[in-house]
Here is the input.
Amino acid sequence: MEFFPAPLENLVEQFARLPGIGGKSAQRLAFYVLNLPEEEARAFADAILAAKETVTCCPVCQNLTAGGLCPICASPRRDHSVICVVADPRDVAAMERAREYDGLYHVLHGVISPMNHVGPDDLHIKSLLDRVAQGEVREVIMATNPDTEGEATAMYLARLLRPFDVKVTRLAYGIPVGGHLEFADDATLMRALEGRREI
Here is the structure.
């Protein structure tokens, strides 16, 4: 039995399809949108449609852009000899927040995951190899997550990049800033010891 009118039920169902949104959160969001003034609700709907229609992938790095090259690839201030490989556009945002990296990126749009039926052909790997083959790249940094799929993807790409005259590195692992040794798991401690450096 439906408690709400069909259009409202449909709105709740659409919100519930979003990742991390359960039934109660979906209902709360639907009521919030329903209570918005007409112009704000229209602006919200227009923003969704505009993003869907105009946001595309950068033809070079596969990051999200509003058409043409993304601002990072287009910037003459970036180091074009270094490429940081990430799984997702959100990872680019995370790296940029640190304000330490000044090279370019390459977004795979996923990682190799046989369990989820994602293979190398489903990722933007060929365009990465094409970029490296041009000869201007001297280092490729693997910045995929330190989980099974991220590690497998990084190792697979490292093997593919071996024939090119390019340095392939991996982001360091270790104890997070503000963390405590007693709460670190064995794998994290092992990686932290392996990646230690002189001070």
Notes: Strands lie at 56-57, 64-65, 79-86, 103-107, 139-142, 167-170. DSSP finds eight helices and six strands in the chain. Residues 2 and 9 are 8 Å apart (CA to CA). The domain at 77-172+179-199 is CATH 3.40.1360.10 (Dna Topoisomerase Vi A Subunit; Chain: A, domain 2).
